[in-house]
């Protein structure tokens, strides 16, 4: 178990007995989607062999249609990432503070030591104006022109206050890891951080059906050197975690709970270092459903998608050298939490040392066929 986590109960939402959840577990036969209702977990593999199919069957699929596994807090099966065939998408620079940090990364060219001076100059010029502007508005266009005239415009500010959101593919299908798994950073990265986020789960019809927690691990040195290195900064072995479960929207948990959520982050380092931060979703520049709409504007996702919504968290607290801010160390325990979605905990290793990703689409199809679930 991770530091501070002794049982599955430590990772569950405060009201897990009353909410409706879906997820995936590793059974003796292979991965199986589950529904959790009334605090009881049900194996849904005979109803819907994949989580993506289960999403499409909601709300007609009922937990009682599956095989009861027992009380969730006593479940003796490893939790997997709660998505499988869904495409994993992510939106960047959706908060004003994160926009400023991306500009700093770009201008520092991946040099953590140069970041402090750039941060001071940019915040002095921009102040609170970027936090109040509505993306794509007339005011946003005026702010853009002023920053261009001052030589401070950036491609990151373009997606922060321009009409188009940044939407990129975070991870290949089936490559995400779940609660309690090791999470990876590139072994050749010297400036990196977690990104604690809420993740929408969206069906093939474009409707958001629930939400979970995610860690969109970021390599600040790689992306700071060039935005064209975004793929290397974002998509590496074990670099994307989701979980512990997807909370499904119902009368008691709605998209407004996502809009109002405060996501907490705690990092405990092997040397005794501790960092705490928060990300308040009510400060997001674009509404979560608008981000989903832009993701779908000219694309289809027949198996649905998971959408990272971005983070307010800016890792500026020094860890080692003054002025160099934060970067991960192997052995860090990263905990992301919010009361209604639970707690996602992962331990940091290098992507080279993380468990290799070997269970892909071919392996999943072979497993489901062997179990007689593809008929």
From TrEMBL:
<dbReference type="InterPro" id="IPR011234">
    <property type="entry name" value="Fumarylacetoacetase-like_C"/>
</dbReference>
<dbReference type="GO" id="GO:0016787">
    <property type="term" value="F:hydrolase activity"/>
</dbReference>
<dbReference type="InterPro" id="IPR036663">
    <property type="entry name" value="Fumarylacetoacetase_C_sf"/>
</dbReference>
<keyword id="KW-0479">Metal-binding</keyword>
<dbReference type="InterPro" id="IPR051121">
    <property type="entry name" value="FAH"/>
</dbReference>
<protein>
    <submittedName>
        <fullName>Fumarylacetoacetate hydrolase family protein</fullName>
    </submittedName>
</protein>
<dbReference type="Pfam" id="PF01557">
    <property type="entry name" value="FAA_hydrolase"/>
</dbReference>
<keyword id="KW-0378">Hydrolase</keyword>
<dbReference type="GO" id="GO:0044281">
    <property type="term" value="P:small molecule metabolic process"/>
</dbReference>
<dbReference type="GO" id="GO:0046872">
    <property type="term" value="F:metal ion binding"/>
</dbReference>
<comment type="similarity">
    <text>Belongs to the FAH family.</text>
</comment>
<feature type="domain" description="Fumarylacetoacetase-like C-terminal">
    <location>
        <begin position="164"/>
        <end position="349"/>
    </location>
</feature>
């Amino acid at each position: 178990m991770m530091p501070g986590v002794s049982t599955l109960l430590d990772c569950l939402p405060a009201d897990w007995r009353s909410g409706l959840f879906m997820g995936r577990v590793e059974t003796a036969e292979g991965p199986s989607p589950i529904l959790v209702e009334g605090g009881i977990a049900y194996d849904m593999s005979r109803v819907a062999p994949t989580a993506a199919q289960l999403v499409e069957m909601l709300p007609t699929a009922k937990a009682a249609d599956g095989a009861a596994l027992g009380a969730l807090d006593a479940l003796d099966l490893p939790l997997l990432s709660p998505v499988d065939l869904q495409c994993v998408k992510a939106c960047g620079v959706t908060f004003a503070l994160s926009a400023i940090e991306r500009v700093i990364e770009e201008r520092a060219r991946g040099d953590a030591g140069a970041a402090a001076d750039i941060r001071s100059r940019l915040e002095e010029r921009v102040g609170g104006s970027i936090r109040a502007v509505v993306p794509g508005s007339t005011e946003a266009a005026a702010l853009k022109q002023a920053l261009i005239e001052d030589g401070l415009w950036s491609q990151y500010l373009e997606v922060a206050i321009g009409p188009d959101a940044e939407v990129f593919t975070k991870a290949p299908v089936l490559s995400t890891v779940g609660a309690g798994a090791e999470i990876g950073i590139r072994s050749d990265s010297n400036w990196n951080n977690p990104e604690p986020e809420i993740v929408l789960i969206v069906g093939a019809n474009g409707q958001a059906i629930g939400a979970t927690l995610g860690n969109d691990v970021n390599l600040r040195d790689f992306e700071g050197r060039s935005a064209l290195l975004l793929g290397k900064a974002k998509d590496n072995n074990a670099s994307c975690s989701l979980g512990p479960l997807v909370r499904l929207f119902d009368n008691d948990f709605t998209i407004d709970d996502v809009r109002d959520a405060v996501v907490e982050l705690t990092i405990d380092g092997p040397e005794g270092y501790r960092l705490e931060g928060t990300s308040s979703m009510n400060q997001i520049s674009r509404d979560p459903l608008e981000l989903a709409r832009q993701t779908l504007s000219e694309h289809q996702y027949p198996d649905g998608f998971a959408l990272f919504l971005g983070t307010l968290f800016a890792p500026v607290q020094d860890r080692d050298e003054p002025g160099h801010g934060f970067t991960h160390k192997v052995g860090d325990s990263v905990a992301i939490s919010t009361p209604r979605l639970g707690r996602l905990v992962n331990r940091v290793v290098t992507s080279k040392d993380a468990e290799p990703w070997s269970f892909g689409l071919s392996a999943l199809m072979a497993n489901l066929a062997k179990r007689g679930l593809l008929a």
